[in-house]
Amino acid sequence: MLNRRYVFGAVLAIAAAFSLSLFACAKDKTPFDQTAFEAAQTAGKPILIEVTASWCPTCKAQAPILSRLKSKPRFKELISFNIDFDTQKALLRKFGVRTQSTLIVFKGKQETGRSTGDTDPISIEALLAKAI
Known about the structure:
single chain; alpha+beta
C-alpha cells in the first residue's frame, strides 16, 4: 500500500524532471538575428528556423524532439534560430509564415524544406537532414 509521503515524493520527482526538460528545451532557443542568419547563409551552413508561440501545444511537443535531434553528431553544425509568432510579425511576412509550429530549413541561402504542425520525430529528422 502506498503512503502519502511516497506518492508526494513521486509527484515532486516527476514535476522536477518535467521542469528540467522544459528548461533544457527553452535554452535551445536562439532568437532570430538577421546578421547571424546572413553570415550562416554566406558560410553555407545548415540552418533551422523555428516559428514558435509560448501558448502553442504543438510547439511544446516539437521542442524536446528538436532538442534531441540537435544533440546528435549528424546535426552538430545546424544553426538554429527562433522567431516568436506573437511578436515578430515582420519576420513572419519575410519568411511567408502563416502559423506557429512552422519549421524552415536552409542549406546556405537555399530553402530546402518546410513543415507546419509536425510532431513526428522521423519526419522532423528527415526535414533537418535536408539542410545538411
